[in-house]
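Supplementary Note 3. Input sequence used for the single-chain structure prediction.
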Amino acid sequence: MLANMEMKTYYFIGIGGIGMSAIARYLKTMGHNVFGYDRTATQLTKDLESEGMDITYEDDVNHILSANADLVIYTPAIGQDNNILQCAKENNMPLKKRSEMLGIITKSKKAIAVAGTHGKTTTSGLIAHLLKKSHLGCSAFLGGISNNYDTNYLLDVESEYVVVEADEYDRSFLQLEPYVSVITSIAADHLDIYGNLQNLEQAFSEFAWKTQNQGLLFLNKEIEDKISTGVKSFSYSFSTDSDFYADNIRVSKGCYYFDFHTPDKVIYDMKMSYPGLHNVENAVVALAVAFSLGVNEYELRDALADFAGMKRRFDLRLKTDTTIYYDDYAHHPQEIEATISSLKSLYPDKRICGVFQPHLYSRTKDFADWFAESLGMLDDVILLPIYPAREEPIAGVSSKMLLHKINKMDKYCVDKEQLLPLLSALQPELLVTLGAGDIDKLVEPITNMLKDNE
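The predicted structure, written as discrete structure tokens, is reproduced below.
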């Protein structure tokens, strides 16, 4: 994507982030040296190390000094008190945010950028899959690990298209100049950055205006009236009052079937094996984008039926005669509602036990009542301590505070060490883990425990 890159050594501060790691993989594939720091080792950072990247988990300035980097790339999620970041600034090392680097890398391609407070990871992953399986092909920088390809990064040097997840945090998506823009949803979030919903909506409007004049814009019908630009735009939804929509939606043997309506034709009996009713709507816009770019009906059918989803997005971890376990990244009340509603539609007779790790003190404070309402949809609620990420604690804000607001009898608040014994005692028939923090590290132990209890 960058034909003439003079810089040869790159240092990533926060290399284990899902967006950061995709860029690191691209640069490494292009033959450059890649160094990095992250706070903790994960499966993803171990994979990066196995791919030849030099990573430290100590906030030690000697690592970045010895790397002699031509460019330092950092994520806004890294605290300003990080020693390595401070060292880079004090030594006047060239610095770029992740979003700036992504904008530079994708500038020479026709970028398909997927934004939205919810649904962008699955939607971008599905668009990438539809194009990858078609005659068009694509590269991709995804915000999650694709189950089809076991990576968050795809490279196709022959294709003119690149799919990117456009992150609204810190207004990062305003660094992009997409050929195709998608906005899946706009709901109050990241209020620590934006202050209020109106400012957030304004940022999404600015993102839409970044779409190239000859490009295309796809908007969820629910937010169509909030966005107006000069580019050609299309609406999508379940509704018949849209340019692209699904109807005749039905479930058979765990798969969704629906008719896909376009402004030109109807493609009947599309099959999607990836669960979650909300993912039908994600599929509609993914199909709409691919269809509009020239992917044919047969390619669309085959790829949609073959889509295996994204890790930690309605991710089925275990299914036996007695136990079903899903893991999901949902960390906003609206996402939690969508996940639980989908589980209820798939398993109407099952008692649902949910484990939730709140992400950020500010988000927990801002949406405490909404969190309580959405988590109240569960039969059994288990809360873990808040994952602080980049934040300092806020007085009076805790998981116990949230627990008191949940109007249920069957509710618990436990430390991570207490979770497995509690689940073993409860023996849930349908379990879901929810959250965007480090709850992912518990997924494997939970899966193994449930297997052992069979």
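The CA atoms of residues 188 and 197 lie 5 Å apart. The mean pLDDT is 91.
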